[in-house]
Amino acid sequence: MTRKKYCLIFLLNLYLFSLFSEQVELNDLLKEIKAKMRWNPVTETGIIEFSRNKLVFKLGAPWVLLNYRELIPTSGVSRGHGTLLFPKDTVEKIKSAVYQEKISSPRVAVILIDPGHGGKDPGAIGTYKIDGKTVRINEKDIVLKAGLMLQQMLSIKYPDKRIIISRSDDTYLKLEERTDLANNIDLEEQEAIVFISIHANASFNKKSKGFEVWYLPPEYRRDLLNPDSVEEENKEIMPILNIMLEEEYTIESVILAKEIMKGFEEEVGGITENRGIKEQSWFVVRKAYMPSVLVELGFVTNKEEAMLLQDQGYLQRLIRGMYNGLCRFIDDFENTKGFTE
């Protein structure tokens, strides 16, 4: 090999060394800024979570996104040496975002309680002969009582939050009206809303009984972002933002479902069955663009359980379980800054 070729190889190696030496490896960056990262290998996007903030990046894209809102131009992020590499200017801009601490802690500002059915829609119905009389038990009546109980308890616990109920009497609401009510609530930056839909169950099997909690399947795709609400320079990354929000809402919905289920188990687990946490694309959780769950209190088609649901003391225990689970969710959400710590 000629001296000239040796020189070219040497210069190339020197250039590559200087190129990579000007970059910071992922673990070193996270350690320095005391952060952690969630990585999506399908979209090749990451979320760096630090203190009160989230910073989104995509492999090869010339930007990072602060809290899904502020687009910051950078030299991008690349892959090398078996890890992710951050150029110096990208690192400096990330550090600047970290140390500015510009966003306050997230908080749950609104809880929307949605008692299902109402008015002309009775929901599930159980009809029984009791002491020679025909008694009809309507789902809409049970869930309204439950919703009002929960609203009262939460209003006392959280006087600084808006506790909204979709219907406070025997009113009929379309499904779209319920979700529109939730989706159109104005929130300040770093404020969150939680949606809880309350129902009672029915089955052809009269022996079916128990409580269950449903959330939207993670694979269900939906458009969470209104294009008009996204700044022009951010429109190209709307699909990425949408996926990130979907992931975030799914995680929060699952945590909420688990906490409510735990509350039910603590209060009435020895009386009825725990039917578990389940996935289903019910309209109200599909169209509510926030952490949301659908709760089934029990079966009106099971005589024994229908009588329990009619009993004020038992219903209070159910609602106390839901209340305790929701309070745990809110406390964890706010104390861990949106589950990032």
How would you summarize what this structure contains?
The chain has helices spanning about 5-20, 25-35, 90-100, 140-155, 175-185, 240-270, 285, 305-310, 310-335; strands at about 25, 35-40, 45-50, 55-60, 65, 70-75, 80, 85, 105-115, 125-130, 135-140, 160-165, 190-200, 210-215, 275-280, 290-300. It has about 350 residues and is α/β, with parallel strands linked by helices. It has two domains: about 10-100, Copper amine oxidase-like, N-terminal domain (Copper Amine Oxidase, Chain A, domain 1, 2-Layer Sandwich), CATH 3.30.457.10; about 105-335, Zn-dependent exopeptidases (Aminopeptidase, 3-Layer(aba) Sandwich), CATH 3.40.630.
Which helices and strands appear, and what pairs or packs with what?
Elements: H1 3-21, E1 23-25, H2 26-33, E2 36-40, E3 45-50, E4 53-58, E5 63-66, E6 70-73, E7 78-80, E8 83-87, H3 88-100, E9 107-115, E10 125-130, E11 133-138, H4 139-157, E12 162-165, H5 175-183, E13 191-201, E14 211-215, H6 238-268, E15 274-279, H7 283-287, E16 292-299, H8 303-310, H9 312-335
Parallel strand pairs: 9-12, 9-13, 13-16, 14-15
Antiparallel strand pairs: 1-8, 2-3, 3-4, 4-5, 5-6, 7-8, 10-11, 14-16
